[in-house]
Amino acid sequence: MRFEGSLLLPQPLADVWPRLSDCRWLIQRLPDRSAESLLAEDHAKAVIRPGFSFIRDTLDVELRRTKAEPQRLLEFAAA
Q: Alpha-carbon distance 27 to 3, whole Å?
């Protein structure tokens, strides 16, 4: 799955950049998260327990920041 695009935020870039480049902060925003851990500054992991009746197990999600050009570009890979 691939998501691309641009999003205009009303806040100054200097205010939002630290959050959007922080893997742990992003992982903590996932719904139905039951646990999370920071594996490295650019790598976080979470366990999700989806609220679907046909899925009764947990899902492991990993997020890794693969590219960052300060206040210009961010790329992430999720598995």
A: 16
- pTM listed for this prediction: 0.79
Q: What is the pLDDT of residues 43-68, one digit of tens each?
A: 999 999 887 777 678 889 999 999 99
How many CA atoms does the CB half-sphere of 38 hold within 13 Å? 9
Q: Does residue 63 contact residue 78 with C-beta atoms inside 8 Å?
A: yes
Q: How confident is the model at residue 3 (pLDDT cuts 50, 70, 90)?
A: low
**E strands, the chain, where?**
33-40, 43-48, 59-69, 73-78
Number of H helices, E strands in the chain: 2, 4
Backbone angles phi, psi at 68, to 5 degrees: -150, 125
Determine whether 44 is exposed, middle or buried from the number of CB atoms within 10 Å of its CB (0-12, 13-18, 19+).
buried
